[in-house]
Amino acid sequence: MPKKERKRLQVVISEEQDALLTRTAYELSSPERLISKSEVVRLAIEKIAQELGEGAHLEEYRSILDSENVSDDI
Questions:
Q1: Contacts by 18-24 with C-beta closer than 8 Å and gap 24+?
Q2: Rounded to whole angstroms, how far apart are CA atoms 51 and 54?
Q3: Which of 52, 55, 68, 72 is most buried, by the most CB atoms less than 10 A from its CB?
């Protein structure tokens, strides 16, 4: 069976964001299954898209994106 093709995305994150990813992956993991930081990112993308599709949290997400904590440093 051919391997499912995935797109790769590279992003620059702060040490604090990396720590959040690590902590979240650890909290979601169980003795039976370890969760990777990539899986946490994919879950977050799906969750945000689902909430936006339902019209929820739009202004909250915009406010977060307007803050310095998640801005791109280009």
A1: none
A2: 5
A3: 52
**Average pLDDT over all residues of the chain:** 88
Burial per residue of 33-71, b for 16 or more beta-carbon CB atoms within 10 angstroms, e otherwise: eeeeeeebbeeeeeeeeeeeeeeeeeeeeeeeeeeeeee
Predicted structure pTM score: 0.75
Plot region of 10 (φ>0 → left; ψ -120 to 50 → alpha; else → beta)? beta
Tokens of 58: 């739009």
Alpha-helical (H) ranges within the chain are 15-28, 37-53, 58-66
Tokens for 7? 């797109």
The owner of tokens 């994106």 is 65
Task: Confirm if 37 and 22 have CB atoms less than 8 A apart.
Answer: yes
